[in-house]
Amino acid sequence: MLLLARQSLLALACASAVIATPTPSTQADALLPRDLTIRQDADADTIQNCEEEYTTKNGLAFKLYCQQNAPFSDAVRETTGAGVWFYTGTWDECMEHCSRFSGDACYGITWTVPGGHCWLKTSNVSTEALTPAPEAITGLLIDRNQMKGFDTKCPNADLSDNPLPGVEGITYTTHCGKVIDEPPRCFEEFDCFDPDYRAFYHTATLEECLEICVGLHPLCRAVSWNPDLTAGYANCKPKYGNSPKFISPTAEQGVIHAAEIVEFDIPDTKCPEQNTYQAAGGTKPRFDIHCGKTNPGRNITNLHAHNMTTCMDACAASDKGCKAVLFSSTLDSGYNNCYLQNTSSIISDLSTSTYAVLSDSDMTSSSPSNSSSPNSSSSSSSSSGSTSKAWIAGPVVGGIVVLAALIFAAFWWRKRKATKAGVPEKDTQTAGYGSVPVHDAESSSYYRHDAPVQSDRAEIYTPGQTNELPGSVKYAHNAGEAQELPS
């Protein structure tokens, strides 16, 4: 009987392994040529029937020329002067890179298939130079005045301190004719490309650049601003600005002025003494307050608030369905430290945050909630652990039920056979117990590195996280061989 039970268990384990473990697919290999053909056909159709115009996310407008090549005039070049291409998945991604290139100002692109070769073009490119090419799309600026630039005069006296208009509590120091000696930075508000394409914002003034800086996450403390657009359309370059070093720009960088924020409105770090709060006005909604807590809800918007009550009042006044707020008592995450949310979710511990939710909203906590004191920071991991256990429990319970049914059926059949034969069967082996491999649910997550940015979903930026984001693997700027399409 023990032998039969062990054999049944082994059979169940093998069946489970077959079901749960992915196996190499020969079908995918068989379909690969067909998929490649479909992609090539789609690219060919895109080339033949391309759109007439395209405007990048930061505002640079292009006119498209289907099946046309713009030879020479390459903005990205080897030391020998030969043009170099890099890969982008689509022609519009190529144009996005043009609008964000920090080098010779980009006035156009040529994108070719197959291969997704993106060639950036300088101001020397023109419609007169276009040549027919069935495998190419060329995009040229509609209005070259977009690259004309602005007044290069320093807007303030050198090293003067000035308040930032429209932003309470901010004072900045102007550094005329200086650039911040700091690598290009990534922020939550825009796609992170490789360093040469990491700049994003285009502004007409230094103050406008600073206003953008104030709204970024993590905290932006300084900016370099290039008014003459010598180094590209994206002329506003925000920096983390931790002890910034100001140096003179090179001739290739053009005219640059910099600014450092030297005074912020510092939030009140004290959590409200009461566990509840009635929003200003008397008839406004009531909030339940959870000190030392954070929540991965969906953000409607974010703004700067001096204290928690101001943040809750902003939620109550919102017409966007605000249900909860998350307030950070530090500015490490960004100057806009009050997050208005339209969902409530599992809360976990974070000593520098305070979470408040409308009293009539459903809310789940990953650890016992205490509004006056934060618990251990391990609550977040315990939450994910419980989810993993629930995921594992289903197959395990199901397997036990199936095993029990198999043992019962086998026992009944053996008993019936033994009764007919008159001789009971004995198990000649001792039951053995071996180690069971443990499935780590957390390591089985899958991340789509090629997923597009969901601009309509602004996930919460966890306060305290100040590290630079990694470059997107979607854009592999590996320089190809120096070449041009035949003219």
Automatic annotation (TrEMBL):
Membrane topology of the entry: Single-pass membrane protein
PANTHER family the UniProt entry points to: MID2 DOMAIN-CONTAINING PROTEIN, PAIRED IMMUNOGLOBULIN-LIKE TYPE 2 RECEPTOR
Compartments reported by the entry: Membrane
Domain Apple: 87-121, 194-236, 296-341
UniProt organism field: Cochliobolus heterostrophus (strain C5 / ATCC 48332 / race O) (Southern corn leaf blight fungus)
One annotated Gene Ontology cellular component of this protein: cell periphery
InterPro entries registered for this protein in UniProt: Immunoregulatory_rcpt-like, Pan_app
Keywords, alphabetical: Membrane, Signal, Transmembrane, Transmembrane helix
Region (Disordered): 361-385, 423-487
Primary location class: membrane
Record-linked Pfam families: PAN_4 (PF14295)
Transmembrane domains' residue ranges: 390-413
Residues in the signal sequence: 1-20
The name this protein goes by in its record: Apple domain-containing protein
Positions with biased composition (Basic and acidic residues): 439-459
